């Protein structure tokens, strides 16, 4: 199988030892520790076999079921975002525009970027899902290269099969063991996924490692107060400098309510019961939705900069 990867610009590294990997008999092999990695439909799968984590396997099963359900319903090519979205709180907002396909999700991406310069940059999106953000980045921002990494192989297969941009590349990989060399990217983007990582501190450490000195970590997620305090402290102790923080909980809740009917319809059949779908969507009436309404869990956007001396 020929690998579809632009190795001249952004080289893949062994996720365990960070050594060089080379194409070897339809697989990738690490020259240092001799680990082998599969190539599936041309896409590198940079995940160690036999390294099983229950939470990660559950995430993969869930998203694989969602992908299959979307395919069965003929909705697959229209569903490229998995996020809550962002809706304006102003009364004069055009409701028709708010309901337009994917507009709420693209608006969330725009709010996360918030003026950060992306033109000509090398960008990594960790947990890229079905590629909606990567597509939008290529379409609107003129980056040099964008890499989408996701734990779920069926997500990466969908992204690669529907990729329209010669500057976009996809790889299956673990957020806690990024398969790239130090100081590779100008921007690391992560939206609404880190709460699913068993060891989020490892993800923060890896994000710092693969960022170039002066690079930016653009980050958005929902957390309870304890996680918010702890995770912010971890990021700053690692050497990140916070340059922007914004609470968008109200905007996210409004977007979730606006898009709820379409998302519910798309996900029916992906889970064992309708209640499971509601819980996954954190729909009105569920415990997690109520916790957000009450301020026990909040959704923030952060920009963290890697210092020029961090390398």
From TrEMBL:
* Alphabetized InterPro entries for the sequence: Erg6_SMT_methyltransf (IPR050447), Methyltransf_11 (IPR013216), SAM-dependent_MTases_sf (IPR029063)
Q: Name one GO biological process term.
A: methylation
Could you list this entry's UniProt keywords, alphabetically sorted: Methyltransferase, Transferase
Q: Which residues form the Methyltransferase type domain?
A: 124-218
Iron as UniProt keyword: no
NAD as a keyword? Answer: no
Question: Short name of one Pfam family for this protein?
Answer: Methyltransf_11
Per UniProt, what is one GO molecular function of this protein? Answer: S-adenosylmethionine-dependent methyltransferase activity
- Recorded protein name is SAM-dependent methyltransferase
Q: Which organism is it from?
A: Paenibacillus endophyticus
